[in-house]
Amino acid sequence: MAKKEAAKEAKAAAPVRHEPAEIPPLRPGDTVAVHVRIVEGDKERIQLFQGTVIQIRGAGQNKSFTVRKVSRGYGIERIFPYDTPAVAKVEVKRHGKVRRAKLYYLRGRSGREAMLHEQRSEEQPRPGTVAE
Questions:
Q1: Residue 45 has what pLDDT?
Q2: Mean pLDDT (the chain, rounded)
Q3: Could you give the CA distance from residue 123 to residue 109 in angstroms, rounded to a whole number?
Q4: SS3 at position 5
Q5: What single-letter DSSP state applies at residue 97?
Q6: DSSP string of 6-30?
Q7: DSSP tag of 51
Q8: DSSP for 66-94, written as a single string
């Protein structure tokens, strides 16, 4: 009987399982904010990782995307699987105008060279024009 009670207590103390987040459609060149669940001991917190999507690879359950940011002069790349409970939420901040599927050339650039032009949607009027 003691083993059954101990097993019940261990099961009750187990960490809460999270479902994978719904990730919006991403494209290379998008600037995204990825909310990542960090577990430290028995505590859990959300940490923000904001950067540019440089590649999307795989299909189905193996699909993942790589986000690159520059922090204190060092380039940091992090690979996130689509189907993981570690990602709480993904927000698309802006869409970059790119003509390639893999943006590895950003690794060799810094400062303004590494910035991508923003892709504008067609329904937005240009600044300075009168909307009808």
A1: 94
A2: 83
A3: 32
A4: helix
A5: -
A6: HHHHHHHTSPPP-PPP-PPP--TT-
A7: E
A8: EEEEEETTEEEEEEEESS-TTEEEEEEEE
Name, in order, each residue with C-beta under 8 angstroms of 12's C-beta and a sequence gap of 6 or more.
none
Please list, in sequence order, all residues whose beta carbon lies within 8 angstroms of the beta carbon of residue 78, skipping any fewer than 6 positions away.
Answer: 34, 49, 51, 66, 67
In what helix (H) or strand (E) does residue 2 lie, and over which residues does it extend?
helix 2-12
pTM of the model: 0.73
For range 13-29, the mean pLDDT: 77
pLDDT, tens digit, for every residue of 67-106?
Answer: 999 888 888 999 999 988 899 999 999 998 889 999 998 8
Closest CA to 98 of 23, 20, 29: 29
Closest listed residue to residue 119, CA positions, set 90, 92, 89 = 92
Integer angstrom CA distances of residue 37 from 23, 80, 111, 132:
15, 12, 29, 45
In whole angstroms, what is the distance from residue 19 CA to residue 3 CA? 30
Which of the 8 DSSP states describes residue 48?
E
Residue type at position 99: R
Contact 69, 52 (CB under 8 A): yes
User: What is the total residue count of the chain?
Assistant: 132
